[in-house]
Specification:
The complex is a heterodimer of chains A (357) and B (286). Chain A is built from eight helices and 20 strands. With 357 residues, chain A is an alpha+beta fold. Chain A has two domains: 226 residues, 3-Layer(aba) Sandwich (Rossmann fold), CATH 3.40.50; 121 residues, Nucleic acid-binding proteins (OB fold (Dihydrolipoamide Acetyltransferase, E2P)), CATH 2.40.50. In chain A, the strands form four sheets. Chain A has a six-stranded mixed sheet with strand order 6-7-8-3-9-10, with helices on both faces. In chain A, helix 2 crosses helix 3 and helix 2 runs parallel beside helix 4. The longest helix of chain A has 18 residues. The two termini of chain A are 29 Å apart. Chain B has 286 residues and is mostly helical. Chain B has a single domain, classed as MetI-like fold, CATH 1.10.3720. Classes of the chains: A alpha+beta (357), B mainly alpha (286). The interface between A and B is medium-sized, with 25 and 20 residues.
Chain lengths: 357, 286
């Protein structure tokens, strides 16, 4: 959506080393004005170090961080027009909800009446009850505290809002609500959001673009759809939920061979040169067949187990030693029972060849 | 269903019994004895005389209140000075000195191993005419030092010196309790270093400051050795009066009355402070 807008934030060869270890290694990235950009990675991938450098709490070892073409490497956090919502939220426990939200305004010597007016506007925008204004922030529930933290950051009126996994400690249902609310707030305010999470699922819901980090490097950047449907490596494909990954080697044009399964598969024409490869098929693209000719690729296996996932049902099918996951919608008919021999298959266009890394 | 059960049927009460007995005998009984003595006629040694208020009259008609003011004044000054001295040190121990903190903490603790009186006599040797400090100053720089020993300032110095660890350690704890992300968040919201300190660090480390202040105040108001050793008995704190009444004067009821008065004053002050700063609220919920 915003890939074409002016970049507000640019990173050039940004690197941060702690001793010999590069926590963040040579990152190049442009984030567009008004974009919702999410950085995803497992713990230890360097994403928190990266966002702390962007917010001004760490200094890069080398490289440049440019905010609207101005180098901000050495600008301390309090002089940057950006604001961060912390993982711990870091709400001030000795202050009320109102005082927390007004903090940035108080620092700027805004008069109390204007401060309160702005705080109350934000509380309304974030669905906080008006009488919470003078409530002690420690007495608020988890979801309310999230909203207070966001309101406090918005009151600062930052050009970029950073989020360091603020939803990671919230239970599933509330998290889903807050994810959507956050995206709504993003639309309402039109501000640039840079979000960090270890959950690609969370990133998918909210982001315009996603950057996947691994061992300090940004290994793929793209829209949620690109990340989901055309991952470039085994790591990215496995990061987004369950996938079936088959190590394969090239077997001429449009075909690969799996040593372990002793079978060949048709694949889409695009291929990866010179690297070990994997064939990735998502469970929802695998289906049960009544005869091998029903799909271009097929395998014979044993139905080992089934897992109900609400609207969908997932089946574990064992082909020799190899475990495959097959998913279907609940309403689709299927009459297999455990330990039955089944045929599973998929079409080449629903599979992806990725680097085995 | 309401059923009348015996007091000891409630769980935990029987388990609490030994400590209850110990506290009653070891703590409450002596206190009651002191309170009882304060109502006995002067210079008597029994608890079964006709109760009288004459000891309290003596306290107020006499000039004993001067001792009380000295004690309160010195204790307050000690607390204020300690707060000013210890905050930067505690801050350094928590946030600046890193792994040297342990060594420094040890250095602050070691003097506690030596008896307070011995340490105070050490200071006498240090400050006395021709002692370590005045002697060095005269020999090396030809500077004559004015009298410091046996002045109220010397007493205050001694008290600050003796009670420093009792302020420092609670304060260190208080500052260590402020999560670093609070500082970062405040700074990120535009606060300068000074604003971070005033708006976040100081209020959040208040519990440590309060506990340290209470502790040192209560200890300092009971101080006696500093005035005797470093003050050369030029100042008589209330504790000294109490000691005199119980020993040389052999007037237990008067000493008891003074002790009761001191306890009342301290309790009221402590209660006021605890009321103003609800420690449970600051410490309990985060």
């Amino acid at each position: 959506m915003t890939g074409t807008s002016e970049p507000i934030l640019r990173l050039k060869n940004v690197r941060k080393a702690f001793g010999n270890l590069a926590a963040v290694d040579d990152i190049n990235l442009s984030i567009g004005e008004g974009e919702f950009f999410t950085i995803v990675g497992p713990s230890g991938s360097g994403k928190t170090t990266l966002i702390r450098m962007l917010a001004g709490m760490e200094r890069p070892t080398s490289g440049d961080i440019l905010l609207r073409d101005k180098r901000i490497n050495d600008t301390p956090a309090n002089e940057r027009p950006t604001c961060m919502v912390f993982q711990s939220l870091a709400l001030f426990p000795h202050r009320t909800v109102g005082q927390n939200i007004e903090f940035a305004l108080k620092i700027r010597n805004v008069d109390p009446a204007t401060r309160e007016k702005r705080a109350r506007e934000l509380m309304q925008q974030l669905h906080l009850p008006a009488d919470y204004y003078s409530k002690n922030v420690t007495l608020c529930s988890g979801g309310e505290r999230q909203r207070v933290a966001l309101a406090r950051a918005l009151a600062f009126d930052p050009q970029i809002l950073f989020f360091d996994e603020p939803l990671s400690a919230i239970d599933y249902k509330l998290r889903k609500t807050l994810e959507k609310e956050l995206k709504d707030i993003h639309r309402e305010t039109g501000k640039t959001f840079v979000y960090i999470t270890h959950s690609l699922e969370e990133a998918m819901v909210m982001s315009d673009r996603i950057g996947v980090m691994r061992r300090g490097k940004l290994i793929q950047v793209g829209s949620p759809n690109e990340i989901y449907s055309t991952p470039r490596s085994r790591f990215v494909s496995e990061f987004m939920g369950d996938v079936n990954v088959i190590p394969v080697e090239s077997n001429g044009a449009g075909s690969v061979r799996s040593q372990s399964l002793g079978a060949s598969f048709k694949v889409p024409p695009a291929s990866i040169e010179g690297k070990a490869q994997c064939l990735v098929v998502r469970p929802e693209f695998l289906r049960f067949l009544s005869s091998p000719s029903d799909a271009q690729n097929s395998l014979k296996g044993v139905l080992y187990n089934e897992y109900a996932l609400g609207s969908r049902i997932q089946y574990q099918v064992r082909v020799g030693e190899k475990v495959f996951l097959v998913e279907k919608l609940r309403q689709q008919p299927f009459k297999g029972s455990l330990d039955d021999e089944v045929l599973i298959g998929w079409d080449p266009e629903n599979s992806i060849l990725v680097a085995d890394e | 269903m309401i059923e009348k059960t015996s007091f000891f049927a409630e769980p935990g009460r029987r388990a609490a019994l030994p400590i209850l007995v110990l506290l009653s005998l070891g703590f409450i009984a002596p206190l009651l004895a002191v309170v009882g003595f304060s109502f006995m006629p002067a210079r008597t040694f029994g608890l079964w005389h006709e109760p009288t208020l004459e000891n309290y009259e003596t306290v107020f008609s006499d000039n004993t209140y001067i001792s009380l003011f000295w004690s309160l004044g010195l204790a307050s000054a000690t607390v204020v000075l300690l707060a000013l001295i210890c905050y930067p040190v505690a801050y350094g121990l928590v946030r600046v000195f890193g792994r040297w903190s342990t060594v420094l903490t040890l250095l602050f603790t070691i003097p506690l191993v030596v008896s307070e009186n011995i340490r105070l006599y050490g200071w006498v040797l240090f400050f006395i005419k021709g002692g370590v400090l005045p002697g060095t100053l005269r020999t090396l720089f030809g500077v004559e030092m004015g009298d410091f020993l046996f002045t109220p300032a010397a007493v205050l110095f001694g008290m600050v010196y003796v009670y420093l660890p009792f302020m420092l350690f609670p304060m260190t704890l208080g500052i260590a309790m402020v999560p670093n992300q609070m500082r970062e968040a405040a700074r990120d919201l535009g606060a300068s270093r000074w604003q971070v300190f005033r708006e976040v660090e100081l209020p959040l480390s208040t519990p440590g400051l309060m506990i340290g202040s209470l502790l040192t105040f209560v200890l300092a108001i009971g101080a006696i050795a500093e005035a005797k050793v470093l003050g050369g008995q030029r100042i008589i704190p209330i504790t000294h009066d109490i000691e005199i009444a119980f020993t040389y004067a052999q007037n237990w009821p008067l000493g008891a009355a003074l002790a009761v008065l001191l306890m009342l004053v301290v309790s009221v002050l402590v209660l006021i402070v605890l009321r103003r700063f609800d420690l449970d609220q600051i410490l309990g919920k985060r």
